[in-house]
Write a structure and sequence with these properties.
It is a single chain. The protein has helices at residues 2-29, 60-67, 79-93, 104-108, 112-115, 160-173, 178-185, 191-210, 216-220; strands spanning 33-50, 73-76, 95-96, 99-100, 102-103, 118-124, 130-136, 143-156. The chain is an alpha+beta fold and 229 residues long. The chain has a three-stranded antiparallel β-sheet. Strands 5-7-6 form a three-stranded antiparallel β-sheet. It has a two-stranded antiparallel sheet with strand order 3-4. Helix 1 runs antiparallel to helix 6 (160-173), helix 1 (2-29) crosses helix 7 (178-185) and helix 6 (160-173) crosses helix 8. The longest helix is centred in the N-terminal third of the chain and has 28 residues, at 2-29. The relative contact order is 0.16.
Length: 229
């Protein structure tokens, strides 16, 4: 009976932690961004851009509609890294004639004319599950692939107290007993969610570590700001 009582207590505490984490995340998102006076060079984009030749086509509006649904930018610290991201996308979702494919959900949001430019195909994802995507038959001359310089133009506002609390709540979920209770209650989370949580945790730890070089007065008076990449 005692063991059951402890488990129930831990499950209740895990729900409290997740509720507070959600509140903290919303507060962090609500802080907004600060525009930098001078943009900072930060890597490269491999970009899919529409060309002026699109004006020659009667279905220009349809082409632009489809273009609006695709992933247009692939970022990397170097051109080689941006190219690698492009190749990863090719491997994961396929790129047909240098143009990204779209998911069923994206396809369903297109107009009938735009849907007529798409061809369905099936592929197996990393979990070997059969998935449906769509090639887009877009005129070759209406777009081109190019590399463009990437810049950081805004810095995210940071509240050290919220960042610290978020990291502490994450650590609590990893404690013995709490981790098991968390997995039991939220076993619907897939691997991607867990991976994103770990990535976020590392970013927060990196940001908090960088605070050590600043005076506490500057932090509390919001005299500093930075971006978590």
């Amino acid at each position: 009976m005692k063991s059951k009582h402890i488990k129930e207590k831990r499950e209740k505490e895990v729900r409290r932690i997740w509720k507070r984490r959600s509140e903290v995340w919303k507060e962090m998102q609500g802080l907004g961004y600060i525009e930098l006076k001078k943009p900072i060079r930060h890597g490269w984009f491999k970009e899919i851009a529409i060309t002026h030749k699109v004006e020659r086509y009667k279905n220009k509006a349809t082409i632009l509609e489809v273009y609006g649904k695709i992933e247009k930018f692939f970022w990397g610290r170097t051109k080689a890294e941006a190219q690698k991201k492009w190749e990863q996308q090719t491997s994961k979702h396929l790129i047909y004639k240098d143009f990204p494919t779209i998911s069923k959900r994206q396809f369903n949001k297109l107009s009938f004319k735009a849907q007529c430019m798409c061809t369905p195909f099936y592929y197996r994802n990393e979990h070997k599950k059969l998935k449906l995507r769509f090639y887009i038959r877009i005129p070759k001359g209406t777009y081109r692939i190019k590399y463009t310089r990437a810049y950081i133009t805004h810095s995210r506002r940071i509240d050290p107290l919220l960042e610290s609390e978020s990291a502490l709540l994450e650590q609590q979920l990893l404690k013995s007993g709490y981790y098991e209770a968390d997995q039991k209650q939220y076993n619907w989370r897939n691997y991607w969610d867990i991976e994103e949580r770990e990535k976020e945790r590392l970013q927060i730890e990196k940001a908090l570590k960088s605070l050590k070089k600043y005076a506490i007065e500057d932090i509390l008076n919001e005299n500093i700001s930075w971006e978590i990449n």
